[in-house]
Amino acid sequence: MARFGKRVLTALTLCLLMAGCASSPSGRGKADLAPPPEGSVLYLPPLAEITLVTASGLREPRADWSETAAINLADALQDAVGEARTAYSDAGEAEAERLASAAETSGPIAPDITRDQTSPSDLVALIVAKADVESSASRLVQGSLGVIFGGVPGPDGVEQTARLTLYDRTTGEAVWTYEVTGVDPRDAKAAKRLILELLGPLKLDTES
Question: Which segment of the chain is annotated as a signal peptide (predicted)?
Fold first, then answer.
């Protein structure tokens, strides 16, 4: 126990020394962001991936948490842009999964993502949110040692990101991306704030 205490003390000392030298990562702000391409946008159902980080650092995907987060994001997105601009259908969900899983798109966006296939749209948008949720045991174990591995719990860090990608509807090519630091979208209010932040650069397009 005494040896463990010495290790913790040493780790905390290193943390203080490193905190004085470390610089926070610089994210790309809206001022540095290239403007999105012009055109009407149709929004696919948002996707969410929520993972439980255990005390040992293992990540366990939680389908139930991910579903809750995706529903909150979808509701917030529809409230923000209106039902007419969302493609909440089985085909739309399948297309969202295809785009999210492919390193590069393999073809044009499926025409049946909306019931009205004549609905005009130049671009298709997909929002993907990822959040690692630490277990209580993980926070207890990693809390004092995490900074050694980059200022975050565990050697691989805790991911909380959200990305909005615009795709050319004709070619399926990704033409614009905006990424922000995410939150836990299982909370409906947090999901709403996240959606509004992602839509910020598209303000003119999302105003009714």
Answer: 1-24
Instruction: Give 57-60's long-range contacts (Cβ < 8 A, gap of 24+).
Output: 57/138, 57/142, 57/154, 57/155, 57/156, 59/132
d(CA 148, CA 18): 8
Residue type, 121: S
Check whether domain 41-206 has CATH 2.60.40, yes or no = no
In sequence order, the 6+-apart residues with CB closer than 8 A to the CB of 43 are 77, 81, 85, 86, 87, 124, 125, 126, 127
Q: 116 burial class (0-12, 13-18, 19+ CB within 10 angstroms)? A: exposed
Q: Tokens representing 175?
A: 């033409």
Q: Give the residue carrying structure tokens 């939680």.
A: 62
d(C-alpha 148, C-alpha 70), whole Å = 33
Q: Give the integer Cα–Cα distance in Å for 105 and 27.
A: 26
pLDDT tier at 115, thresholds 50, 70, 90: low
- The 10s digit of each residue's pLDDT in 169-180 is 888 899 999 999
* pLDDT given at position 200: 93
The Cα–Cα gap between 124 and 114 comes to 11
* Burial status of residue 205 (CB atoms within 10 A of its CB: 0-12, 13-18, 19 or more): middle
Distance (Å, rounded) from C-alpha 91 to C-alpha 82?
19
